[in-house]
Design a protein that fits this description.
The protein is an alpha+beta fold. It has one domain. Helices cover 46% and strands 31% of the residues. It is built from 1 helix and 8 strands; from the N terminus they run αββββββββ. It has a 4-stranded mixed beta sheet, with helices on one face. A 4-stranded antiparallel beta sheet has the order 2-3-4-5, with helices on one face. The chain is rod-shaped.
Length: 140
């Protein structure tokens, strides 16, 4: 039975240590890659969910304007726009035929085409009326 010399034992231990460090480093690298992928997925999901909220909100506003367009003279509806959408600050603006909703932090933008109107939408209470074929927006 042959025994290893002290020098060979030391080299064998060193080799095992190096192999262990290599395996540990590879496992750590794989862990970092997986964590990065998970973080990107969660962030992407959050952004998509926020975009869906803003799109849905803009669609609700569009429906009120479409209702005003389809209704006769004397139509009036009150629409309260919240200070935040799903906890996110936003800005709202409109042109005569488009409404824009944008997240102030991320820049996410939702817009919808609306019937031609006069006035400006703002957070809080808005009154949409139709008189003589003209759709007007006024603060309540």
């Amino acid at each position: 039975m042959s025994q290893l010399s002290p020098g060979r034992k030391m080299r064998k231990r060193s080799q095992l240590t190096v192999e262990f460090m290599f395996i540990f480093a590879m496992a750590f690298l794989i862990f970092l890659v997986l964590v990065t992928i998970i973080i990107q997925f969660v962030d992407s999901s959050r952004t998509n969910m926020q975009q869906d909220r803003f799109d849905s909100f803009a669609e609700g506003i569009q429906k009120n304007f479409q209702l005003a367009k389809d209704s006769g003279t004397g139509f009036a509806v009150t629409m309260v726009l919240p200070q935040k959408i799903g906890g996110y600050d936003y800005t709202i603006s409109n042109e005569p035929d488009v409404v824009y909703i944008q997240d102030q932090q991320t820049g996410i933008l939702a817009y919808r085409i609306i019937p031609n109107s006069t006035g400006t939408l703002q957070k809080g209470c808005n009154r949409i009326t139709k008189e003589k074929g003209v759709i007007k927006i006024e603060a309540c």
